[in-house]
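ok trying this again, last paste got cut off
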Amino acid sequence: MRFIVALILWALPQSIAAQTWEDQRLFNGGASGQPLRIISSTDTSLFAPIIERYVAQFPDTAVEYLVAGTADTDRIFRANPEAFDVVISSAMDLQFKAANDGLARQLPDISHPSWAQWRQSLFAFTSEPAAIVINRAAFAGHPIPRTRQELIEAMRARPDVFRGRVGTYDVRKSGLGYLFATQDARSSETYWRLMEVMGALDLRLYCCSGEMINDLSDGTIAVAYNVLGSYANARIESEDVIEVIFPSDFPTTMMRTAMVSAKTRRPEAATAFIQHIISLQYSGGRNAFPLPPLAPQINDVEWATIALEPALMTFLDRLKRRRFLAEWQDAVIQIR
């Protein structure tokens, strides 16, 4: 029996090491001791300035930053929570459920608004609206859609232009995509009409915002729906071929969240990191905090944000999830 337990304990870190990450980077590798291990769905390019500020403040701490998709982040962490110290994800519902399941350490000494944290164990630190992002060339000489209904009308008017050139998340695989889709569906029936129109145009399905933006930039697709606005805005600073649209009919804005693993091996360093990302957003300057802070304003109007509350877990119920995905597949994967 002792041999079996020892074998399991040996195999767990080996399975983590064998994991294929979207990205993996060690910060301040010269520091001695075990690095602070962070599993995250946020691209390294966006989070690196935040980590660099942290290791400058704590030069004796190294940080290993591991990137996976939102659904994979949740799955990998749940399989081996002792292997990670901090979990960061844009999939609010999956994070909330993990915290509610007792996988997050309570941090009673951290001060944070009640609406932006859950039981001192899950902490929101950004507000990021979903966006419609377009390739401008596809709309040259035509009105730019500002609502979902206008996007429907634009695609119906010129189907040959948009056939095979519209993208969104594969909500069966993307945790963030599923969150955005269920929230959209709760807000308006327009969502289902939009999915049906996109499905009829041979909709392309993606894992993540970055891949959609890449295909928008080179003209592979003309429209990407529910892209993270923060990712898209980071790209338009260096290229003028895409345009970011925050639909005016109804907003879908998520809060990126972070938590310390209940089984962290570096509780003090992990707690300091949570405090760091919370406080950094108030220090000012895009270089200090390259992600949107909490409660942003778009065009001087504050957008409603998905609440950090138990209702988030509604569509994680197995039966409800199965029904939603069946309806979604009927709409977007049409037999021709």
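PB: full thing came through this time. The mean pLDDT is 90.
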